[in-house]
Write a structure and sequence with these properties.
There is one protein chain. With 431 residues, the protein is α/β, with parallel strands linked by helices. It has a 7-stranded mixed sheet. The protein has a 5-stranded mixed sheet with strand order 1-2-4-3-5. Helix 10 links the parallel strand 11 and strand 12. Helix 1 packs parallel to helix 3 and helix 3 packs across helix 14. The longest helix has 25 residues. It binds nicotinamide-adenine-dinucleotide.
Length: 431
């Protein structure tokens, strides 16, 4: 996983030539860049739980806090065997930019535990979540660092975590903050926000719609392939189809399906829930689609927009030249490596970057935090009415920067905006 940290650092380097001339004091600029290329704080250690069989087991636990110049650290928690220090560092750097692009008053954080949660019972998982909070309680809080769900974590895990945090603060006799706001992505009955579930996918579709308008693309003539049909991919595909785009290919980790006339995404979503796999829907003729020989074949389909919405590092130097779509719309975090992006740029493939496209999730987490802090809860209509203009104006800012500069990528445009906001605050604070 060392390479994704290198990717995050390379992306910072690529924005420097445009940013540097804007800062006459080279020394301060260089000092700040050096700071931005490291994380403020990496908390790592081992946590131990008792398994159901009475034995003890240790797990490596991490939280990376990249930069908090603009506000408390914000970012998800992963439970995955590959979680390591370099991975959380890279992901926390990306969170800083994502929060800056969308103007959220946050910095970037990310954390997790090296564990395969499928090997644990619900009771063990709960003990692990609570142990993680005990490990981290001094470093998190509503005005310090606000974690959220990420890969393999969910609203239930956030419930256990927030409960443990409140218990710890009670034990310390320190309930002078609303510790409910320590975590976002909570269930509705424990301070969660309406609309959070679908927010990343829907937020991406608000960006997609603005982008299509800017490029004068007709949604009903725009063929889209989506890799991944989990939270992000499924909501993205459903809302894109509702907005009139032609979703022609979808995949989960086992099966890729396509129909160039367009897929009935609502039927796919309902069927996947009922039958558990995309393959079953084709085999049972519930949907009209063909199965591709391999899931990765989806990446090479002749569509107008390819949407990676599953994993990191799926478009690499090895396969970038095979991509036929002229546009890649990154809903996953870090799906395209910098080496791949160079090849894509040469081939005139436009990449709409993750830090813009998938920022709807953290934006709605911000709305959850605001609702917790004020103790006043909004309807779903109200939440989405705030998300829509936020995503649209973030796109407009990035697109204006992209079109005003020759020979930069949309990612560089996004980074220039985000890094400038962070650098300016650091200077204002006396860096
Ligand atoms: P998820 O676990 O709900 O879904 C992941 C999907 O990817 C599943 O459909 C899975 O079957 C599929 N998948 C796994 N391996 C695959 C493979 N080899 N080929 C094809 N498909 C594969 O996760 P998610 O929450 O939807 O997150 C997806 C991505 O979006 C991640 O990169 C995550 O960091 C990013 N993201 C998520 C959010 C959020 O709010 N959930 C916000 C921002 C970014």
């Amino acid at each position: 996983m060392a390479d994704i940290l290198q990717n995050a650092l390379t992306q910072i380097d690529q924005a420097i030539p445009i940013l540097e001339p804007q800062y006459p004091n080279r020394e301060i600029f260089q000092r700040i860049i050096k700071k931005l290329k490291t994380v403020n704080n990496l908390i790592e250690g081992e946590i131990e739980i008792t398994l159901d069989n009475g034995k003890k087991q240790k797990f490596a636990a991490y939280r990376s806090q990249h930069n908090d110049a603009r506000g408390p650290y914000k970012g998800g928690l992963r439970f995955h065997p590959q979680v390591c220090a370099t991975e959380v560092k890279a992901l926390s750097i990306w969170m800083t930019w994502k929060c800056a692009i969308t103007n959220l008053p946050y910095g970037g954080g990310k954390g997790g535990i090296a564990v395969d949660p499928k090997t644990l019972s619900q009771e063990e998982l709960q003990r692990l979540a609570r142990a993680y909070v005990r490990f981290l309680s001094k470093n998190i809080g509503p005005w310090q660092d606000v974690p959220a769900p990420d890969v393999n974590t969910n609203a239930q895990i956030m419930s256990w975590m927030v409960d443990e945090m409140i218990k710890i603060k009670k034990e310390e006799g320190n309930l002078n903050q609303n510790y409910l706001a320590t975590f976002t992505g909570k269930p509705l009955n424990l301070g969660g926000s309406q609309g959070r579930d679908e927010a990343t996918g829907l937020g991406g579709c608000y960006v997609l719609r603005s982008f299509a308008k800017a490029k004068q693309m007709q949604p009903n003539e725009t063929k889209i392939a989506v890799q991944g049909f989990g939270n992000v991919g499924s909501w993205f595909a459903r809302h894109a189809a509702k907005m009139g785009f032609k979703v022609v290919a979808l995949c989960d980790s086992k099966t890729a399906i396509y129909n160039f006339e367009g897929l009935d995404v609502e039927k796919v979503a309902a069927g996947k829930k009922e039958y558990g796999s995309l393959a079953a829907l084709v085999e049972k003729k519930i949907i009209n689609a063909q199965i591709l020989p391999a899931t990765t074949d989806l990446l090479y389909l002749p569509v107008d927009i390819l949407v990676p919405a599953a994993l990191e590092n799926v478009i690499t130097a090895e396969n970038a030249a095979q991509i036929k779509a002229p546009i890649i719309f990154e809903m996953a975090n870090g799906p395209t490596t910098p080496e791949a992006e160079e090849i894509l740029q040469k081939n005139k493939v436009l990449v709409i970057p993750d830090v813009l496209a998938n920022a709807g999730g953290v934006s709605t987490s911000y709305f959850e935090w605001v609702q917790n802090l004020q103790g006043y809860y909004w309807s779903k209509t109200e939440v989405l009415s705030k998300l829509e203009p936020l995503m649209e104006s973030s796109f407009t800012d990035v697109w204006q920067m992209y079109t005003a500069n020759k020979n930069i990528s949309v990612r560089q445009a996004a980074y220039i905006i985000a890094m400038k906001k962070v650098i300016d605050v650091m200077i204002a604070r006396g860096e």
